Amino acid sequence: MKPKSNYSKQMAAVYILMGYLSTLFIQEIICFLTFYPMLEDHKVLQILSNVVWLYAGTYIYYKLTRRYTKWWKRLENKGKDNADGDKS
User: Mean per-residue pLDDT for 48-70?
Assistant: First the structure.
């Protein structure tokens, strides 16, 4: 009998969302502690550095989760293989 996995598309979406929100939170803490004090007098540079920092962090998060987790495979349902590699 095959063990039933409770790892579903909904759980994969929750994991991606929770990971993304925690990554954004950590990125903003780093940004406010490093970039903002360095650029106190330049409001435009503060905003631009924040935008670039967030886009770069989002891109890195996407690449790392795509490569090292099975969440994206589960959401996209690639081929007939499950994320575990078993044929269904």
Answer: 90
List alpha helices for the chain, DSSP H.
9-38, 43-68, 71-76
Q: What domain range includes position 56?
A: 9-76
Average per-residue pLDDT for the chain: 81
Q: How many CA atoms lie within 13 A of 52 on its CB side?
A: 7
Give the total number of structural domains in the chain: 1
- Residue at 67 is within a domain: yes
Cα–Cα dist 46/59, whole Å = 20
Tokens of 12: 């994969």
Looking at the chain, how many residues does it have?
88
Give the Cα separation of 31 and 29 in Å (integer): 5
Is 87 part of a structural domain of the chain?
no
Per residue in 2-21, pLDDT (tens digit) is: 655 556 788 888 888 999 99
